[in-house]
């Protein structure tokens, strides 16, 4: 009896044209709201790499006004010359005016760097990413926010920075932007809000990171990062400067096969054996000189030096030091790595946001060309006094000599 009454009521409700339309409109409205929530939540997880030009000008000018006073205080520091290097006896000379050939090579290297950045960005989009907080919660209560980085991998180029960043991203309390922002060297005029928009969303207790290896050799970078935050933690991956220079040359050679030989670029004069320090591949490896500039703005306790060699031979050990430095629990351990015999360096058993093993792309681990042993030995002799100075400054012997 009760069942028949219910069925009769439902039939009567559905048979009414007005009520039928109301029911259909209600269903359509609920579907529309669900789709709206899903779309907004999805869009909030996409990296905002492009900022509206008008908004960018507005925020850029606002940031400029907020930081004008602090920048004024730093003018003298930005213009100050580094301390003289009279305590090191070497045939090192400050780079003179570049020749046309060296300028062309520099342009080639910059193009190569940008090509590498593009390769990394493309790989980033192809790699499966870890999910953000749920779309509904992000839409309803604003879970997660974009923050300026509390830690930055500032160098060095071809030292192992990409490997370190990929390894660190396994940690649940680290969120990092994939592509190199180059904010403090190439895009500083865009303002801090533009920089913030590049960062991923983080929750309370998570650390925002980025890596741009060219910061370490950019004269203005230390003062600019200090203006953003004097508490920023800095990480530098260093590697035998001779091996690093050859790796740097190998990268450029892969993009520009017609560049001069490594030997001809290394020397100003092969007969006298004078090293050409205007070549960036050589200049980057004078770590002590660059570090001296950073120590004018940051204390040594805020800078961690990671061994590029140990990052290959003992990745878990080096990652343990980094996690301690960042004040994080040691979650990344030996169980996260396996050694890839083909590439010759460790890979992740499970990458961030994936259940599959992950190795760095084809642009990493290139085979180096054969270099004349006499040239290699001459470079080792050249770098030795600078390495000794670097060991003294950092309190750590990296064993390159």
Oligomer kind: single chain
- Catalogue the unreliable spans: 40-87, 89-104, 123-142
**Shape label:** elongated
Q: What does the largest sheet look like?
A: 5 strands, parallel
Q: What's the rounded overall pLDDT mean?
A: 78
> In percent, how helical is the residue content?
40-55%
Count of strand segments: 11
Spell out the helices and strands N to C: HHHHHEEHEHEEHEHHEEHHEHHEEH
The proportion of residues in beta strands is: 5-15%
Q: What count of helical segments does DSSP give?
A: 15
Distance between the termini: 96 Å
Strand order in the largest sheet? 3-5-2-6-9
Radius of gyration: 27 Å
Derived from helix and strand composition plus strand pairing, the structural class reads alpha/beta
Supply the key terms:
single chain; 401 residues; alpha/beta; 11 strands; elongated
Q: What does this 3D model show about the protein?
A:
By secondary structure, the chain is α/β, with parallel strands linked by helices. It is built from 15 helices and 11 strands. The protein has helices at residues 2-15, 17-44, 53-79, 100-126, 135-141, 161-168, 192-198, 221-228, 241-255, 262-266, 280-283, 287-294, 308-313, 315-325, 373-394, and strands spanning 145-146, 151-155, 174-176, 201-202, 207-211, 233-238, 267-269, 274-275, 303-307, 337-340, 345-348. The strands form 4 sheets. The chain has a 5-stranded parallel beta sheet with strand order 3-5-2-6-9. Helix 2 (17-44) crosses helix 5 and helix 12 packs parallel to helix 15 (373-394).
